[in-house]
Amino acid sequence: MTQQDIFAAIRAEVLAALGRIIPELPAEIVARVEVQPARDAAHGDMASNAAMVAARAAGRKPAEIAAELATALAALPAIDAATPAGPGFVNLRLAPTAWHGVVRAALAAGNGFGDSTLGAGQAVNVEYVSANPTGPMHIGHCRGAVVGDALAALLAKVGFAVTREYYINDAGAQVAALAWAAYWRYLQALGTTMTEEEYAALVPGGLQYRGEYLIAVGEALLAAHGPALAGPDATPAPPALWLATVRETAVAMMMASIREDLALLGVTQDVFSSERALVAAGAVDRAIATLDAKGLIYEGVLEPPRGKTPDDWEARPQTLFRSTQFGDDVDRPLRKSDGSNTYFSNDIAYHADKAGRGFPLLIDIWGADHGGYVARMAAAVTAITGGAAKLEVVLCQIVRVMRGGEPVRMSKRAGSYVTLRDLIEEVGRDAVRFIMLTRKSDAQMDFDLDQAVAQTRENPVFYVQYAHARCRSVLRAAAEAGVLADGGEAALAEADLALLDDAAELALMRRMGAFPRLVEAAALAREPHRIAFFLYDLASDFHMLWNRGKEDATLRFIRAEQPQATRARLALVAATVAVLRAGLAVLGVTPMEELR
RNA sequence: GCGCCCUUAGCUCAGUUGGAUAGAGCAACAGCCUUCUAAGCUGUGGGUCGGUGGUUCGAAUCCACCAGGGCGCGCCA
């Protein structure tokens, strides 16, 4: 049993046996055959639904097939017992040697345990964060950053060729507003006598982004340009003189700041795509032309939303995309009534650009407030690529930050933090990352600051890292005691694992054996949080085993008088380390050597 | 009004893509340190899986309707 995924290995055996009982089963039946962990340990280690799935096609009773299957499987060396059960399950109890194979596989694979070829090298683009470059990252961006980063790692682990991408929204009204705000800081740096309100009255749409983080931008502009961007006596000059320059500097500085924040979070992305560059290159017009050539564009008037007509509603002709042909509810505007492009058309161009770079699969991580946008964007990707590329969107629900059981108010004035940087400073990067992954992304979440820094079981980060630290502590103690002697940890794979037969040891091995299967399932479902829950369970199994050694000295890992048993147990501990690290690597969380 | 997401133990949440008697943590109670980290472990109690129908060998999971919560709904990005 050299295969990493013991469930896949046993499934292959089940299929072979089933093929002998019922030859020529249709492929779609075979595909439905599963071997999965038993829910109840009393049923054994694994259960297969093979007999139930095959029964109808074979025209036989499930229980009958299950009985024959059980007889055949029981004869295999890796299987200790196979029994038909319930409506037609075959329950399997594996020979301990099969579980020992899992330990060897984990030791051999190390961080690569759970790697698979599921993705077959297919290119996938994961786009996440993509916060507007108008200020430092705040907590609202954080969940998407962590989920996207972990999902990218997860997909890479199962064999996709992953590109991590950030889309810079540097073309729209938001960055113009940013430029106006940065220009105010520049005038202040010059020593203007205007008040903020006087200046705000001059700004189209009003002065936004009043945060102090733009002071540095104003100072940088002064250092680079002196008074050249302003009028006499530090008064505002016409925008034509400064807008483009200020915008460029401000966006560049905001992006630098965001990248610092991302680095603090341990997120590094491969590609940063600029919306402005795409627009300048004519990509939007090309995208619209492509849709037009496919007959998917028309000039039309949209119905007002039913039951909720805006006060200023007025029927106007617009350029519309036939997204209803691809499953959307209504056709969507590509151009505003004044003829300029909507954000949607820029986004179509961007996604077409991504697809054109050779990604048949695009995954975007969005905030839940963009949920209404998913159908039209997916429709557009399908339409413009002729089905060659597919868009999937993972929505992340709101995170509420809690302190002392109360939500922390996101007020800039109240001094309660809003930035990602502050959050990381308070609870640490590992806690931020892990806790963000302890919920399904589409479920709302409370981030409990008190829990995040607690050093108890209720803090999942601590609990998992503590398990790893305990493992390392044992291995260090073993090295000091000289028990590891020959070849150190590397030689533990050659230990006589047959000596691992305690129930708690088997439970731990069973858990590790489930990891490769779980990794694949999590990747297919785009649900990195499953890894976090697995690690918590694995840590729990290990802590349990540890305490067995407290209650019964013969179950301690290190027993000076039993070198063979000691080496076998150290092999199990080292394998646990490998699996914990493999999982933590997906989440981007540090495996701590010690937590003192 | 329409669309999407959510509803599981007192609280916060898992539930291996339809499997067997629905699981964790917290909170409550009772235990375990001359021993590798007690920052841990063990045990007890706690459920109409929001409701009603349907699909089938089998439903917390799929479908329909209903109730409650969240998000969104032409020229914001």
Structure in words:
- The chain is an alpha/beta fold.
- Among the domains are: 6-94, Gyrase A, domain 2 (2-Layer Sandwich), CATH 3.30.1360.70; 132-276 and 425-435, HUPs (Rossmann fold, 3-Layer(aba) Sandwich); 456-587, Isoleucyl-tRNA Synthetase, Domain 1 (Orthogonal Bundle), CATH 1.10.730.10.
- 49% of the residues lie in helices and 13% in strands.
- The protein is built from 21 helices and 15 strands.
- The strands form 4 sheets. A 5-stranded parallel beta sheet has the order 7-6-5-11-12, with helices on both faces. The protein has a 4-stranded antiparallel beta sheet with strand order 1-2-4-3.
- Helix 6 (139-157) links the parallel strand 5 (123-127) and strand 6.
- Helix 3 crosses helix 4.
- The longest helix is centred in the middle third of the chain and has 26 residues, at 239-264.
- The protein starts with 5 loop residues before the first helix and ends in a 9-residue tail after the last helix.
- The model is unreliable at 412-416 (pLDDT under 50).
- The chain binds one RNA strand of 77 nucleotides through helix 3, strand 10, helix 13, strand 15 and helix 18.
Summed up:
With 596 residues, the chain is of the alpha/beta class. It contains 21 helices and 15 strands.
